[in-house]
Amino acid sequence: MQTTISNIDITIVVMYFIVVLAIGLYIARGTKTGEELFLGGRSFGWGLIGLSLFASNISSSTIIGLSGAAYTTGIVNSVYEWMSGLPLIIAALIFVPLYLKNRITTIPEYLAKRFDRRSQLIFSGITVFSTIMVDTAGSLYAGSLVLQFFFPDLLLWQTAIFLALIAGIYTAFGGLKAVVYTDAIQAVILMVGCTTLTYLVFQKLDFSWQTVLDSVPKDHFSIVRPLDDPGLPWPGLIVGVPLLGFWYWSTNQYIVQRILGAKSLNNARWGVVLAGFLKVIPLFIMVFPGAMALSLFPNLENGDAVFPMLVTNVLPVGMVGLVLAGLVSAILSSVDSALNSSSTLIVIDFIKPNRPNLTQKDIVRYGRITTLVLMVIAALWAPQIQRFSGLWDYLQQMFSIIVPPIATIFLVGVFYKRGNGTGAFWTLVIGISLGILLFILSEFDMWHIHYTMNVGILFTLSCIVFIVVSNMTEPPTEHQINGLTYRPGLITLGTEDLPFYKNYIFHILLLVILIFGVLFWLW
To answer: What pTM value is reported for the model?
Structure first.
């Protein structure tokens, strides 16, 4: 089988690296303040926001992991993609206006205002850790696997450092604006490349869907699985997936930061809904090719090798370079977002409060240094991920530890006005401790409940802790409630004078129809 690429393909990839780096460094010339570095000067329109959300989320780990999971266990894990529209809708309806009206720079700042600084520091620390050790390292690892497939002599750690270095340089100096603009380009390249690959894979099967169905196990294209299914049992689909999605799209600095940089509330909401529509696309251009690969390569041992195998054996010269550039796009778009968001958290939540006299020049300098340090840490950790059984499982199991208590203090805290700082603090401490305990028990084969179901269990326990502790301690002040919790009129804020076709609620209705149409189709 083909394991190398032509000089033409290599040239395409090298040119892509040069263009992205040049764009990032060009934008860096105008980055002078902390707000420009971390929020792009709050100047982003809805198109940039939507494309950047899509590109930052669709990492190389998503492509490799989802394709591999579709090959080995079926398309059930695709629900993490096309059902993302539902938590994005919640974000647009409730959390986006709360965040923008309070003009926060980091999501933990919201917790400091709603609860106290303890919750801010814990959540910020958890977010930095998970973003660097899970998101960034996972993207570098998956990207390194891809490049190793084309260039077998490359070492994993060398490749991870190279990829981190490219993304780290333009992110450190160009900030969020460089991230968002390069993300927009990367999103287009990614969709074009993956769409082309999907078309050619289907062409090899004579455009026959029946041929695909005949080559896969029963229920391979069904998303509703039995209770003992190792991929995603049906209770996890109902409980775990929505909570994981809510945390990711509404509370994760790594994602929400470009929303905080919107030039207006309506642009932020339009961008979020656009991302919801774009998130349906991976089902067709990333998940389906992995499942269809069973017809072409029925005996692969490692599911994570499916996508690279398709690229090298299906695409012609020139197209390999385009798709590889798309994969590199996915790597860089995830790494740059993760590095920028993590440096923002460290500077704004930890350094600035302890050094209130920092100038804008100092903030920019600290942000750039922090970005480069985090870049090195992620690159060094990335090779260790190969010790886990599968990339997708690694990502989701790590997230399942931290999500339940975080989802509780945001989702319950925004509606339950009696919730206070002490309740939020102990919810985080106890919830995360229980998550780590269940993870350890699972690793030693002493706990056999699927991690998506663990999310539901831990969310319930976290809700109990939050409500009980809050009611046993002093209530929050009016300052901690007003403007920081749900109130009538929040959903329609800013839509009063808009025609229906510009009203984001109309767009949401269309998105809901699309999501549930796919749900019933794949039931």
So the answer is: 0.88
Amino acid at 67: S
Q: Report the alpha-carbon distance of residue 303 to residue 286 in Å, rounded.
A: 13
The model's pLDDT over 403-439, given as tens digits with 9 standing for 90+, comes to 899 999 999 999 999 999 999 999 999 999 998 898 8
Residue among 194, 192, 138 at smallest CA distance from 311: 194
Tokens of 233: 């049992």
Residue 104 tokens read as: 């926060």
Q: How many CB atoms lie within 10 A of CB 8?
A: 11
Q: DSSP string of 233-271? A: -HHIIIIIHHHHHHIIIII-HHHHHHHHTBSSHHHHHHH
What are the domain boundaries of the chain? 7-391
Please, where are the H alpha helices in 40-155? 46-57, 60-72, 79-82, 85-90, 96-101, 107-114, 117-130, 137-150
Look up residue 454 and give its two tokens: 């663990």
pLDDT score at 391? 53
Average pLDDT of the residues in 318-337: 81
pLDDT band at 45 (very low <50, low <70, confident <90, very high): very high
Q: How many Å apart are CA 406 and CA 110, to the nearest integer?
A: 13
Considering only CA atoms, which of 51, 81, 40, 515 is closest in space to residue 274? Answer: 51
The CATH class for the domain spanning 7-391 reads mainly alpha
CA 172 to chain centroid: 20
Q: Is 286 helix (H, G, I), strand (E, B) or coil?
A: helix
